[in-house]
Amino acid sequence: MRILTCSEAGEAARGPEADPQVLMRRAGYAVAQFCVSQFKFRSVCVLCGRGKNGGAGLIAAEALRRVADAVAVIVLAKGVDELRPELAACLAPDVEPIWIADEADFASVSVQQALGADLIVDALVGTGFKPPLRGLVAAAVAAVNDAPGSIVAVDVPTGVDADSKTALQTGGNVAFPHGIIALIAPKPAHVFGHLTAGPIAVSELGVQPAFVPSAAAVRVITGREVGMTFAPPAERDERPFGQLRQFGHVLVIAGSAGREGTAALVGMAALSAGAGRVTVACPKSIQPTVAGFHAALATYAVPETDQGTIAATADERIGELLAGKDAVVIGPGLSHNPATGAFVRRLASTCTLPLIIDGDGLDAFEAQFAEIKRGAKTPFLVLMPHAEQAARLAGFSVDDIRADRVTAAQRIAGATGACVVLKGQRSVVAGASEEAWINLSGNAALAKAGVDELLSGLVGAALARHVDHRTDAADPAPTADRPFARVLLDDLRVAAAVHLHGLAADIARDALHENTIGSADVLEALVEAFRDCDLQLEQNLFYLHK
Fold first, then answer.
1. Fold for domain 6-216?
2. Which fold has domain 242-535?
3. Cα distance from N-terminal residue to C-terminal residue, the chain
4. Helices and strands (H, E) in the chain, number of each type
């Protein structure tokens, strides 16, 4: 999803078919929908300014009266005569708002009772605001922050510059919400401002923000991309195994002695994400153990070194296994054996299938970064380093990478021709198409052993199920001849898998606890993550994080 500045979002709202009054009503209904889906409440207080956000707040109040026992409306004006006609039209005839014309009015009994509601809706100021707050609005924000209920901000919290990329500082004269419903498109502050630990959703209000030129160098991932990537096949193929083929066949090359579980987890993640079949190739001595993790995993033993890692002589066996596969994942749990590293580098240079390199597979290129480039035979290459690994590979400092993760990921993608997933808090996907995405889903549990490895399986499943949209892997087109749209779609599928991974971890955290969840919990939560993304598509309400 594209990130738009205030002026760009305003341009989208002024489209040829956009009616300001209709957009205001849609915004109000979106606010009510967000509140009902994310918060529990019996009483509501909506605070409205005299701009478009205030109109959305009035419409939301009208809608919330159908589900709440009590809804109070506070308007920062002396009376209805001070409201513009389009705003006054949003005020329901049977609603008696509390009018506030002076800061002292906030101390009145009626205002204090209204502010004691379970849910507070901040519709005071719109995206055109530039700090600092002054006068009556500043007093209103102080009252909102002192209120005991949950706070929902309409578009952006009052007091925040929507175009700012600076993290919000505590102690400032701004509203601190428990949830935000962004209108038309996410603004820079939603993505970079750390405005809330709660949910942030986006409602496009039926306009077409995708057609407005955007200056943003990065996009943000939502459940919409997940729903599009992992959508069921459009038509049933009646040929034998035709439907299964549409879901794709993933080959996982992973594991070593003592790390049997890693190989199995990658394969299980691919199965759980919808791959039709998964084959795990692993060292001969651990193959029975890997096979025991899941009955649906096909496992194959390959030659191994004395240390129980994949041997250099495994090339022929792996070459046979590539036939009929749609995507390859290599690296998790392979260990750092030199012979295994040589095998990884050879496969990367000759593989004619979409290839995902993760974990120890990336470490095989630590001293040979130049060899990791996507070649003419490789239709799509995905690299999945964390910050420290990326620094070792590309010769950057870890501090430089952490200071600007987007730029660092794009530099590695440019040097290798690959799609790069720079893992960590707010993972970045720098595509081979030169587009970039930032992901806001996920929590600290993603760094736990086993949970991190699941991601490569999800990416493998995402790429394998769309094999029909590529050239035949047996006769791939040169890299330079691949249509831009095809590369962009593959990049987007990788980004979708990253968001799905984080969303599943968030769902597991909410059901259990961040300290206790592990890989099995995240795998189980994938079911709810998929359902959540389907619901987002159905409701046209897309979450940056929940």
1. Rossmann fold (3.40.50)
2. UDP-N-acetylmuramoyl-L-alanine:D-glutamate ligase (3.40.1190)
3. 16
4. 20, 18
3-state secondary structure 37-60: HHCCCCEEEEEECCCHHHHHHHHH
Which residue do the tokens 């692993």 mark? 282
Q: In angstroms, rounded to a whole number, what is the distance separating the alpha carbons of residues 90 and 86?
A: 7
Cis peptide before 132 (omega within 30 of 0): yes
Q: What is the pLDDT of residues 510-521, one digit of tens each?
A: 999 989 999 999
Share of the chain above pLDDT 70, in %: 93
| Whether the predicted pLDDT of 478 surpasses 50 | no
Q: What's the CA dihedral at 285, 290, 295, 301 to 10 degrees?
A: -40
Q: Can you list the pairs that 12-21 forms with residues at least 24 positions away whose Cβ atoms lie under 8 Å?
A: 12/184, 12/185, 12/207, 12/208, 12/209, 12/211, 12/212, 13/184, 13/205, 13/207, 15/207, 15/208, 18/207, 20/52, 20/86, 21/86, 21/89
HEC states along 241-286? CHHHHHHCEEEEECCCCCCHHHHHHHHHHHHHCCCCEEEEEEEHHH
Structure tokens at 425: 């808090």
Q: For residues 51 and 126, is the Cβ–Cβ distance under 8 A?
A: yes
pTM of the predicted model as reported, rounded to 2 decimal places: 0.91
Order of strands across the sheet that contains 43-48: 98-99, 70-75, 43-48, 119-123, 150-154, 179-183, 200-203, 542-545
Listed in sequence order, the residues at least 6 apart from 393 whose beta carbon sits closer than 8 Å to its beta carbon are 362, 365, 366, 369, 372, 385, 412
Domain boundaries, the chain: 6-216, 242-535
